[in-house]
């Protein structure tokens, strides 16, 4: 058994206490002094969810100043050419490495937008042990058989943005996911603002980015209970910033993701640190970052897989080293995360 002590997140904020972890589960959460000598002291939180990854593209050599289209637009952005040309062994190796790094950074589950059709999902299945894998069809026009094949090996389907695809195609993929009872998700308003009415008609489990979203677009998500995953570091690379403070003010559920492996490693502290800065600059409360990091990630998992990330029910807690009195200093620390 491992005893983790310090500032324990309780869903509202932090209190002094401890968590006991045994057999891969958090078995007890308590207030006050820990009953054993702690194995680690700091900020005690559930293992984190990386809400948006493309874990296979770490090997892409990104040149500074490349645009979003040059880099990731299907079918011929640099990343897609790379994924077509690289060997399967390299992809499996890189995905596995990515998950190992994520694990050591205190991440329990990654939600991966896997390219490469059914084959891409099968490779992800070989490489990853605890991921939500959302596949992406490769056929240029809707192929019901292909979508069925992907859904037989993946947790669901996630598409690029609606601007990159034919509407009817997108609708059919969404319908196939709903018919199979599996989540459908997509990138929304990353490069340009997209038609939110159309996006909502697809009934996504969650949407990613929304950097060009208007208040009405954000409200549509808030009202429908559709979480928004934002990726501050990836957005920053392309000169964009999500209106995170406004999203929270309007009642949207915000979760965090690290996006493309070629741009950012799976490090939620780095993502949360940048979000805290954004919230401050936008007149919001930087400590809301914990809600996005922990509760937002948990909400996302509940919409993608029927598992809960709540304390005591599944994942073990982890400890972020916390050099100061305030838990917020834990986001600035580069010290290793304690993962029991
Ligand atoms: Zn993405």
UniProtKB/TrEMBL annotation:
- Please provide an example of a Pfam family that matches this protein in its UniProt record: Amidohydro_1
Q: What residue ranges carry the coiled-coil annotation?
A: none
Record keywords: Protein biosynthesis included?
A: no
Annotated EC: 3.5.4.26
UniProtKB keywords? Hydrolase
Which residue numbers delimit the Amidohydrolase-related domain? 43-276
InterPro entries for the chain: Amidohydro-rel, Metal_Hydrolase, MTA/SAH_deaminase
The Swiss-Prot or TrEMBL record annotates one GO molecular function as: diaminohydroxyphosphoribosylaminopyrimidine deaminase activity
Is this entry keyworded Hydrolase? yes
The UniProt entry, under SUPFAM superfamilies, shows: Metallo-dependent hydrolases
Q: Which Gene3D superfamilies is this protein grouped with?
A: Metal-dependent hydrolases (3.20.20.140)
The EC category is hydrolase
Q: What is this protein called?
A: Pyrimidine deaminase archaeal predicted
Natural source organism: Methanomethylophilus alvi (strain Mx1201)
């Amino acid at each position: 058994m491992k005893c983790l002590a310090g500032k324990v997140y309780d869903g509202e904020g932090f209190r002094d206490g401890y968590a006991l972890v045994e057999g891969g589960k958090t078995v007890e959460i308590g207030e006050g002094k820990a009953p054993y000598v702690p194995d680690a002291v700091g900020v005690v939180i559930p293992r984190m969810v990386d809400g948006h990854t493309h874990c296979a593209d770490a090997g892409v050599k990104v040149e500074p100043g490349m645009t979003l289209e040059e880099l990731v637009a299907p079918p011929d952005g640099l990343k897609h050419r790379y994924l077509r040309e690289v060997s399967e062994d390299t992809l499996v190796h890189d995905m596995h490495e990515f998950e190992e790094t994520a694990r050591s950074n205190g991440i329990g589950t990654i939600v991966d937008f896997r390219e490469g059709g059914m084959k891409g999902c099968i490779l992800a299945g070989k490489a990853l042990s605890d991921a939500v894998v959302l596949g992406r069809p490769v056929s240029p026009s809707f192929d019901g058989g292909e979508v069925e094949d992907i859904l037989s090996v993946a947790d669901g389907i996630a598409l690029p943005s609606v601007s990159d695809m034919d509407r009817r195609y997108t609708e059919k993929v969404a319908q196939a996911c709903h018919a199979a009872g599996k989540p459908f998700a997509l990138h929304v308003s990353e490069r340009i603002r997209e038609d939110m009415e159309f996006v909502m008609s697809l009934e996504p489990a969650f949407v990613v980015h929304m950097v060009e979203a208007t208040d009405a677009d954000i409200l549509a998500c808030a009202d429908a209970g559709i979480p928004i995953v934002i990726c501050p570091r990836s957005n920053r690379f392309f000169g964009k910033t999500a209106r995170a403070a406004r999203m929270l003010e309007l009642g949207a559920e915000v979760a965090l993701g690290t996006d493309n492996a070629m741009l950012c490693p799976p490090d939620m502290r780095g993502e949360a640190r940048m979000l805290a800065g954004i919230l401050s600059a936008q007149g919001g409360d930087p400590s809301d970052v914990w809600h996005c990091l922990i509760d937002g990630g948990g909400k996302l998992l509940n919409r993608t897989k029927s598992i809960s990330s709540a304390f005591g029910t599944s994942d073990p807690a982890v400890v972020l080293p916390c050099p100061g009195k305030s838990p917020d200093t834990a986001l600035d620390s580069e010290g290793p995360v304690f993962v029991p």
